[in-house]
Design goal:
It contains 24 helices and eleven strands. It is an alpha+beta fold and 747 residues long. It folds into four domains: 1-36 and 180-358 and 718-738, Multidrug efflux transporter AcrB transmembrane domain (Multidrug efflux transporter AcrB transmembrane fold, Up-down Bundle), CATH 1.20.1640; 77-170, Multidrug efflux transporter AcrB pore domain like (Alpha-Beta Plaits, 2-Layer Sandwich), CATH 3.30.70.1320; 362-401 and 529-707, Multidrug efflux transporter AcrB transmembrane fold (Up-down Bundle), CATH 1.20.1640; 413-521, Alpha-Beta Plaits (2-Layer Sandwich). Strands 6, 7, 8, 9 and 10 form a five-stranded antiparallel sheet that branches. The radius of gyration is 31 Å and the shape is elongated.
């Protein structure tokens, strides 16, 4: 691997202009493809294997004319909610006139198919304080014209001026800020960190440039394929988030190693080859772990997660390819500019001058010496601290955020609250019961009997009249629970209905399935929870095998896997504390606490797994490299940290900055993932990898680098550290006056 990448880096260095042109052409081609591709359809969310999904499928089969399946083929809908002033009723003549005026204006708007009369459809609350009008559009919410939205808002505002409280529920008026400003702040912070780390504008700009090119190609490709593959906006956002973070870090490690080899006296092309062969090998294996974690999301069996994982995995793989080809090509274009000013001056006076400062103690080596001297106390304190932070994870409650999670400044949230107050908390989360009476002798009587039995279940407030299909053998009932969608009692009601199904089927001759958005969310929660442990086992097992090959050790991969679990649990604990318990919620723009998005933990586990292995590979390969050169275990730890700690810490700060930028995005899933990943990187890179790892290695000593003889014989040898390359590079650097231009052989 190291030899191949060394040759690849040298080839890219020599053919630098061609390589740069090829990548620019790839970016242009991907951009043109995305611009010419048709717009992506609204993303569907399906949950194969669950009862709610089977019910959706049955509705699509038996009610083809107006399917309400998971794909959401109908146009947008909204509810215009009216609340009378205190002491009045919405049915009072004056208030009724205002309602009729607003509903009439809304019904006349372009793109509106129908605005139902609240009084004609019996959508007035029992106490007469609240009413709502259901509005149906002929287009999706994202396709509603701005003029239509403005006219709708004006009609609502006129109703308010007339004395009523008027709000609009649904997604028609919902705004989705892009969060671009906060994402830009993350990139700016990354640029500052790179500038401080490298003390060179060119060296700081190169990782940013290559990362943006890789992300640009990846994002454009995803957009080009969105229509054909039905990819959601969250798919491209996650790919951009990860691609930008790992792209910067991967390029940063190769540039850092190039500068290090130049400081040791190597000529530019030799240094580029060694950097690509050594740091590039770590990049390839680290990228492979990220790809494994992301691609592994496909085993969960949720199509949306599979799409997100594979798209992000493809972008990460692209970032690796950019790092090992475009980075050495740009180093060929700026061979001296990427060096710090002091190093540029030193290289003018020959190789030995450049090496003069090598081995000088730095912050990394001083920290490593501190840990090596007191490994046990350091280990216990670090593990205890992460353990305390992880405690809230035991109270993790999964769910799906809706309008109730939005701030009260939005009309959607106020409409949600008004409907809950006027019609009961369960009104916002009705259950859809699909009654299949195809095998019953009298389908209509069987459906009516089923409705009576369901209505008698404790926790059911009301059951709507049955809506039959054309064949009159299948009916849809809308059941209103007594509790809101996020209440645990609503989940218990769904389980009770399903448990009572055999008895009801025996009594009526018809069977039924419980569905609707509330039931679908609960089914989704259970499926994700059931998949989390097997998924963890899969990715941790694959990581163990991969690191076993890389480090030829049993204890090092075991330590890496346990450290990963510790950092993930601590990050989940922080997410629960903020988004579920509300700690520091206002500071992070979390307007409403509630359950954690059901797919968020498993997505975070997949991503953090890969990033954790990144830092493990980058740090431990330098330690093992020093050990292979004959240094004692403690000395090798200090040596490895002296070379890599500064760059790894800078890489962690960059990732934290990039991920934190996505906390400003309005979409709850992306906000949670951004915070979770930023927190996980903080814990994993700075606590687990830079504190717990050296402490454990110091305690293990020589045992860290051994494995049973029988296992050693069957595990393939992979020179990730580039031991042969560095040995040759040492010999080259020791030849004073010999440079590449003076005839030194090019490998």
């Amino acid at each position: 691997m190291a030899t191949f990448l060394d040759r690849l880096g040298r080839l890219a260095f020599r053919r630098r202009r061609r390589v740069v042109v090829l990548w620019v052409l790839a970016l242009v081609a991907a951009g043109m493809a995305s611009a010419l591709a048709p717009a992506a359809p609204d993303g569907s969310y399906s949950m194969p294997g669950t009862e709610s999904q089977r019910a959706f499928d049955l509705i699509e089969e038996r009610f083809p004319a107006n399917s309400t399946g998971s794909a959401g083929s109908e146009g947008a809908s909204a509810k215009v909610v009216f609340v009378a002033p205190a002491g009045q009723k919405i049915t009072d003549q004056a208030n009724r006139s205002v309602v009729d005026e607003v509903v009439g204006r809304v019904g006349d708007l372009g793109q509106v198919v129908r605005a139902a009369d609240p009084y004609g459809t019996d959508t007035v609350s029992e106490d007469g304080s609240t009413a709502y009008a259901s509005v149906t559009f002929e287009v999706k919410a994202k396709d509603v014209d701005d003029k239509v939205k403005q006219d709708l808002e004006q009609a609502v505002e006129d109703g308010r001026e007339a004395g009523l409280t008027v709000e609009v529920g649904g997604s028609v008026l919902a705004t989705q800020p892009s969060g671009g400003a906060t994402e830009l702040v993350g990139v700016v912070v990354a640029a500052v960190v790179l500038l401080i780390t490298f003390a060179s504008l060119a060296a700081a700009g190169l990782p940013l440039l290559t990362a943006l090119i890789g992300v640009g190609i990846g994002a454009a490709t995803i957009m080009a394929l969105s229509s054909a593959l039905g990819l959601s906006s969250a798919t491209s956002t996650l790919a951009m988030m990860l691609g930008l973070a790992v792209g910067i870090d991967y390029a940063m490690f190769i540039v850092s190693r190039y500068r290090e080899e130049r400081a040791r006296g190597l000529a530019p092309q030799d240094a580029a080859g060694v950097a690509t062969g050594t740091a590039g090998s770590s990049v390839v294996f680290a990228g492979l772990t990220v790809v494994i974690g992301l691609a592994g999301l496909s085993v969960v069996g949720i199509p949306t997660l599979t799409q997100m994982g594979l798209a992000a995995a493809g972008t990460v793989a692209l970032s690796v390819l950019v790092a090992v080809t475009l980075v050495p090509a740009l180093l060929g274009i700026f061979p001296r500019t990427v060096l710090a000013r002091s190093l540029r001056r030193a290289t003018r006076h020959g190789a030995q001058a450049a090496v003069a400062g090598e081995g000088k103690p730095n912050m990394g080596s001083r920290w490593a010496r501190l840990v090596v001297r007191r490994p046990l106390p350091v280990l216990l304190v670090a593990v205890a601290a992460l353990g305390v932070i992880a405690l809230p994870a035991a109270k993790l409650h999964l769910g799906t955020a809706g309008d109730e999670s939005k701030p009260t400044s939005t009309t959607e949230r106020r409409a949600y609250d008004a409907l809950a107050e006027g019609f009961g908390p369960g009104f916002n989360g009705p259950l859809t019961i699909v009654v299949d009476a195809k095998k019953a002798r009298d389908p209509k009587s069987a459906v009516e009997a089923s409705a009576r039995e369901i209505g008698a279940v404790d926790g059911v407030v009301s059951v709507s009249p049955a809506r039959f299909n054309t064949a009159a053998d299948t009916a849809i009932l809308s059941v209103t629970p007594a509790t809101d969608p996020q209440d645990e009692r609503t989940s218990e009601l769904i389980h009770t209905l399903r448990a009572d199904r055999p008895a009801i089927e025996k009594a009526t001759g018809a069977t039924f399935m419980v569905s609707g958005s509330t039931a679908a969310n609960i089914d989704s929660d259970q499926k994700v929870q059931g998949a989390l442990v097997p998924y963890l086992g899969l990715v941790v097992g694959l990581a163990f095998l991969l690191l076993l090959i890389v480090f030829r050790s049993v204890l090092v991969p075991l330590k890496a896997a346990l450290g990963f679990l510790l950092s993930v649990l601590a990050a989940l604990g922080a997410v629960v504390a903020v988004f579920q318990w509300g700690w520091l919620a206002g500071l992070l723009g979390v307007h409403q606490t509630g359950p954690i998005m059901n797919t968020m933990p498993i997505v975070m586990v997949g991503i953090v797994f890969g990033l954790a292995m990144d830092y493990e590979v980058f740090l431990v390969t330098r330690i093992r490299e020093a050990h292979l050169k004959g240094q004692r275990p403690g000395q090798a730890i200090v040596s490895g940290f002296s070379h890599s700690a500064r760059v790894v810490a800078a890489a962690a700060v960059i990732m934290i900055s990039v991920f934190s930028g996505f906390i400003g995005v309005s979409e709850p899933m992306i906000k949670m993932i951004g915070f979770g990943l930023a927190t996980a990187v903080l814990f994993d890179a700075l606590v687990v990898r830079m504190t717990i790892v050296p402490a454990v290695l110091a305690l293990l000593g020589e045992r860290a680098w051994t494995m049973p003889r029988w296992l050693e014989r069957i595990v393939p040898r992979v020179d990730v550290e580039g031991h042969a390359l560095t040995r040759d590079a040492d010999a080259t650097a020791a030849m004073p006056g010999k440079t590449e231009r003076q005839g030194l052989p090019v490998r």
